[in-house]
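Provenance

Sequences were taken from public entries as deposited. Structures were produced by running a predictor on each sequence independently, with no templates supplied. The record for PRA1 family protein from Rubroshorea leprosula is shown for reference.
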Amino acid sequence: MDWGNVTAEDLVDALREVDWSSPPRPLSEFFSRFTVPRSYAKWNSRLKCNLYYYRTNYFILIVFILGLGFLRRPVAIVAAILTTLSIAFLNDSFAGTFSEKVTRTVRQFSPHLAAKMRPPLTPVIRGRPSAKRAVYVCGRPRGVFVLIFSSVSFILWYVSCGLLTVLWALAIGLLATILHASFRTPNLKARLNTFREEFRAVWRNYSEL
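Predicted structure for PRA1 family protein:
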């Protein structure tokens, strides 16, 4: 896969649709080999490849740095968790997995309520969905949960006065992520992983025809 031809929009769409439940890469691999890219094209391709391949590691790194900044602000920790959830709900895989697990848990106590939490059926015309399948969480559109979690987290940020802290911690986390992704040399496993994800995307599009 030629990462130099992948746009930022394509990368964001791939990160939104990809499965984030995969475990992080081992630290021995994460801090294995670093080299300086020889050109802007090499740097651009390496940055996108590493951001996709080490996505779970970067997410944990940013959360860890944010946690260090909130040790003395418990309310800010809750606000950070809600903000993280509101962002995580934008990922199709996370939203579907979260909804499935909550529905399964509720079904053990109230099957009638769990039945109401099922997503509505997508109308099919001539064997194909009439539109792109919308993502539902616990029977409600995903945007409802994103709006609620974002609103509550904004109020908590305002009450805790920790917005400046999160901005500094987020800036440090993003800087560390960009530096690692820029100098970490992609290995053969990373390249094979991108080919596998590309094959899955092609197969998924083929199965929807």
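The chain has a mean pLDDT of 77.
DSSP finds ten helices and four strands in the chain.
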